Amino acid sequence: MKRTAIAALVAGAALALPPAAEALTVYAATSLTNVMPEIDRGATYSFGGSNTLQLQIERGAPADLFLSAEPKEAQALYRGGRCERPRTFATNKLVLIVPEGDPARVGSVYGLRRGGLKLSIGNPNVPIGDYTRKLLRRLRLSRVLQTNTVSEQSNVGQVLSQVAFGGADAGFVYVTDARAQRDRVDSLFVAKWAQPPVRYQGCVVRRDGADQAGARRLLRTLRSTRGRRALRRFGFGLPPRG
Amino acid sequence: MTRRSVLQGAAAATVAAALPDGAVAAPPAPAPIGDDVGFLSFGAVAESVLASFYTRAQALGDAWSGGERRLLDAAHDRHRANVDRLNAVLGPDDAVPLDDFSRRVRVGTRAGALKVGRELETLVAGVYLNGAGYAADPGTRILLARLLAAGHACEAWLARLAGHPAAGLPAPVDLDTAGLRLDTYLRDPSS
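Output (structure tokens, whole complex):
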């Protein structure tokens, strides 16, 4: 009986711990997988396609901070009253990757016109898929999605893996992803003028029990000199300060 | 009245007449289809580079007469307006934000400025000509043709300032080639 009472007391004390004692929960775009733990090792991360994470937050997932690879998802949560005003904290560029040595001799983005290649891209609902289609439209290369065998992935990490391990002849990822696997993939030229604007936005999630103070702190850190240095080290671009 | 001032007056009239404005009958509204956005996106970036060129050229000050400076100003304003016009057609999803690129146009002398300006105007007009032939949407084709006429008028004026006869229409330039050239004038502001 005495033991039971002690156990109940311990359990009660554990439940009574302030939320700040728990790790901050961050839902972040897959392309932030390498850099975020460098900025805050203490947080708990859930990485995935921004659209999937958005849906999970809309359904009440226990996120404190949402970091999206394009403004659309964060802005949708903001409009729905599920997060505070999103802030841009990083930019990125697209690149065409091929397995090391370019065995299929793709050569450049224009090499995709040849057709008959295995091309890996994000599906249209994830930021990398949306950006890829914009890039191809700007280059007047949308037809390569018909003339090559296209496999659509649900996040940029899957595109990277597919190319890195030889499952595809080429794929579109962010520059930062290509850097992370540079021993397995080569990056091919994509014209600067045609790059779509890739903007990462973060927002503090509004829900009962969310650690909003902690989330605001981490978002501030991301936009601070220390955060910007880390982002830069991993190859991200930086928006103007402010 | 000198021959130079007559030619300058004629050039001003040509530029003013050829630059698109609202005074002529409205063409069908452009509604780009599929990859038509390629010509328009290229145009938006290139027009911003041209606007930067005319700003840099203006900064050479005494290299130009008063009349020439006014024409440089007018050309700058038209190219800058073209960026907005093209972005409006592209719509919020495809518009090219101006802060996405730093433009790196270097001109040190009048002769150098004329050379760079002519090269840029010819390049961009060549892409518009290509687009006027290949864009799927009729409204987009007309818009590109009007921009071509405007660009070509500017090129002809720059050619006259350089002491060369105005050339005929430029050759069409494909986006692959033109993009490589345009890239040399661009820098990623976050890099």
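Chain B has a mean pLDDT of 88.
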